[in-house]
Amino acid sequence: MNRRRPAVTSLKYLALVTYLIFLAFPLFWLISTSLKTPQEIALIDPTMIPREITFDNFTTAFSEQPIVRSILNTTLVAGASCVLTVLLSIPAAYVMARYRSTLSRATLVWVLLSQIFPFILVIIPLFLLLRDFGLYDTYIGLITVYVVWSMPFALWMLRSYVATIPYELEEAASMDGASKARTIKDIVAPLLAPGVVAAGLFAFVSAWNEFMFALVLIRSPEQQTLSLTLVKFIGAEGVARLGPLAAASLVATVPSLIFFAIMQRRLTGGLLGGAVKS
Amino acid sequence: MSAAPTVERPPASTPSPRRPRRTWLGLDRDGLILAIPALIPVVVFSVYPLLRGIYLGFTDARAGRANETSFTGFENYASLLDDSYFWESFRIGLVWAFSVTILQFVFALGLASLLNQKIRMRWLARTLALVPWAMPQVVVGIMWRLVYHPNAGILNSVLMDLGVIDGNVDWLSSFEVALPAVIVVGIWAGMPQTTVVLLAGLQSVSKELHEAAAMDGAGVWQRFRNVTWPAIKPVVLAITTLDFIWNFNSFGLVYVLTEGGPGGATRLPLLFAYEEAFRYGNYGYAAALGNAMVVVIALFVVFYLRQRMKEADER
Hints:
Chain B: This is Carbohydrate ABC transporter membrane protein 1 (CUT1 family). By secondary structure, chain A is an all-alpha fold. Chain A is built from 13 helices and no strands. Chain A has helices at residues 6-34, 38-41, 56-63, 65-98, 103-116, 119-132, 139-163, 167-175, 180-191, 193-209, 212-217, 226-235, 242-277. Chain B is an all-alpha fold. Chain B is built from 12 helices and no strands.
């Protein structure tokens, strides 16, 4: 439209570049800080790009007991939440897709409602409940909470995948005498693989990144997840510690970066696709 | 609603055995068995706690097993109204939620319309625009603390070089600039979601209509007002409402950035409630705060949506 107006075009690019600097610069700064030597971080006039690139900050971060410990904790908690969420969601998602029931709508309503209610209303009773069950400050308690809070959305994702599997396949199976549970296990579940990967990744990354529940439900340092450890880490804010902090933060970002790399198309594409039709 | 063939009501004590099988949520036995492993945990660990949380707001629940909890009706709310910290945190919460939502919407709309055009390196721009979304909240907080850091931060250094400031500013610890500084991070963190949604809206705008309007000599602004805006309005309504709710309920980001300081200058309602509950053990009072937040959100959403609906009717 503006092919003949170079001024407008260059303004446009200028605006775009400003946006991209705003959006990407903090990440650039985090990476830059993580690659600097302590001496360079302490300079009065900070350098944009490290003069001397070093990976010492990463080695330092990985040699610190609390960080390594919390990475292992987080992997365990997120992995267990992922597996449990998927296992519990598949049958329910099947029901949502195949039955004419109010379950689908109830799930959607719950997903929306849980956005409106502030987390304090849930976390106090949850804290009391877990304490009464003896699950306060345990992995099991935290995993339970993560499974329950990522499930409604995981269900919603999986439901749409089930809906794409032709029902005839199941009819054939049940004709051959397979029970419902058997049909799901042997016919539906294998065909669901892409949906399972998406829902599983979602559950893993939400648990990996989660902070608020962990803040309230975990107390002892040995049980801390990575988010908690990182936040504790900033408390001791000597400039010398900023390098390892930046390095550890980058490590903490890896799972969600992978998730976004895989899901990018679906996140933008899926959303765009749906919106165009409506 | 009942599909029972018999009209007469069976006596309550002796349910008729011939009644069609009652189904729950529209599920038969198989369906229930499959759904229950997912339903029970959700009900026990999220629906029930939420209901109990709402109820706690009407009690004097406190930390410590020895304390008896009793129903106190609206007592908590009366004390809330007398509590200057409460008013202050709601004021900050509203300033935060409105600034972030509105500014984010304006910036995201600009970015989305740029990304909607044929420009070079669009794929790169679209990928970079998603960066904040792909980062955990805690890392976002830490990253911005590094940017804002009074000595080692890049912001001070850049602003000094540009001659905007002449001494290092401690952005997150200064009473005047802490809230604006935190708002900038809030805008940054939510840009991708809002942009993606608005971009989807923009792509649904009919190209033919745009071209026809251009033929008739409509300028850029006129085309935006009369063609684009009406088409994206439902999307705008949905995303700004959601953004407002998310922002008013936000906790983690500001907790990592400032923990509500300095001197409560960034103490959002949820940070206040968190302190009340887990620092001072006032569960009932904190839950009442939560309920008050729900009321504020509900009032806002109803008012906002009704206002927009009315405008839509007048067209």
